[in-house]
Design goal:
7-stranded mixed sheet; 14 strands; globular; binds zinc ion
Length: 266
Amino acid sequence: MLIPMSASSVTILGCGTSTGVPVLGCACGVCSSPHPRNKRYRTSAVVRLWNGKNIVIDTSADFRSQALSFGLDRVDAVLYTHAHADHIMGMDDLRGYNFSHQHSIPCFSDATTLATLRRTFSYIFEPDPTYEGGMLPQLTLHEIKAYLKFELCGTEVMPLALQHGKLSVLGFRFGDFAYCTDCKSIPESSMQTLQGVKTLVLDALRYETHRTHLTIPESIEIARKIGAQQTYFVHMTHTVDYETVSKNLPPGIALAYDGLTFEFSA
Ligand SMILES: [Zn+2]
Ligand SMILES: [Zn+2]
Ligand SMILES: [Zn+2]
């Protein structure tokens, strides 16, 4: 008998910049706003596949709170875009899933990111043999390369390169969905890889210019070039008020918010 498969979906676990929103110690209008969409955990997402498997993209510094807020009951794999603190600092909290899953969790990224993960979390990857504490996170690191498609949890993942200032980071395409956070520009080869994407998640920090992140006007231009039916902006700062900015975005482009969920074809 065929088992009915539900659709694949993505949940935005967080759409805030590296500080999160509200920013600690800030009393600006957005930081003190009661609007739930002006509260942003650090940027990350979960891809929930038709087969019940969950692929997390980045374990942000808010990972534990995000997992609890959005009912993340299992983690089958983690993809890392890059090793900036806001994208990796929740890695230790994967340990909770080791207890229920009873196996290690595979984590994937490029060689540069894996080297930083090994260094930053040396207590996990080069454990001290005299350590007497509780169980360490059980994680395995696997290198992937931009434009080399690989199979993960029963689906195909295409990593692509993005320029985050001088740093090359990874974006990911799954079927007709792509996730491109933390970038200032998108190389031509990645623009080609993104052709035909129906739903796009794209970095859009704020209106004011920034050296390593796309601004909202820059992201609108790139979103138009890519031509997805729907583009969602992420990694926003506290200068982005949800209601005010949303009113000024063109059709097919919207600000993401924490907990936003949409379906895609894997
Ligand atoms: Zn970031
Ligand atoms: Zn503020
Ligand atoms: Zn970054």
